[in-house]
Amino acid sequence: METKRRPRSVLEGAFTLLDALVRHQGEAGLTQLANSCSIPKATAHRLLEQLTALEVVQRSESRYRVGAQAFRLGQSWQPYPRLLELARGELRRLTAATRASSVLAVPCDGHILIAAASLARPEDHRLFRPGSTVPQRIGRFCPVWQAEHELVAVEAAITLPTGRAVGSIAAVLAPPQPLAALSDTVARAARTLGAALVRKADPVSPMSL
User: Fold this and answer.
1) Do 105 and 191 have their domain in common?
2) What are the residue ranges of helices labelled H in the chain?
3) Are 176 and 88 found together in one domain?
4) Is 168:190 a contact under the CB 8 Å cutoff?
5) Can you give the pLDDT at residue 7?
6) 57 closest CA partner among 42, 46, 12, 32
7) What is the value of pTM for the model shown?
8) First and final C-alpha spacing in the chain
9) In degrees, to the nearest 5, what angle opens at C-alpha 88 toward C-alphas 189 and 188?
10) Cα 65 to the chain's mean position, in Å?
11) What average pLDDT does this structure show over 18-29?
């Protein structure tokens, strides 16, 4: 006996369209979105117009793109308090020191989510744009995926004093490259970031009047 498929809710349909916009590099036409989401064109149009009214999607002539409200909502997301803020500076320093693209990676729905990046090569933008996902194996960049893209990811977990890992820092580069020194540099960056997350703010001295 065949199991009936649960009808897609309005909310699910709206988020499916938003996800498709991201997959299409942030902009696509109505027919393209409806086909990629397996949603009737009339339904896709109605949902996109509702999202446009909320500024979650922006329409430009016959094409749609991610809107300002979606950007504002996304900016408030944090995998761990202050992690993005602190990681961006650490990634820039790591890229300057290693000349490799550096990323902050966090687990997300069975994949690795690129939460922040400092890219050394323009061609890395397609793979490591913040918000993109990468296949994982045992919580690390999938070796098969690395081989397919002719890349090597040197990773180190960002851990708190409790032992909890809140993500990882990875330096990504094309082989062959000397990796021993790079591993030490990445591990040091991860330790620095982990310590910064739990470091207490210096007490503020009372102002003298």
Assistant:
1) yes
2) 10-23, 30-37, 41-53, 68-75, 83-98, 125-128, 143-148, 180-198
3) yes
4) yes
5) 59
6) 46
7) 0.73
8) 81
9) 0
10) 18
11) 87
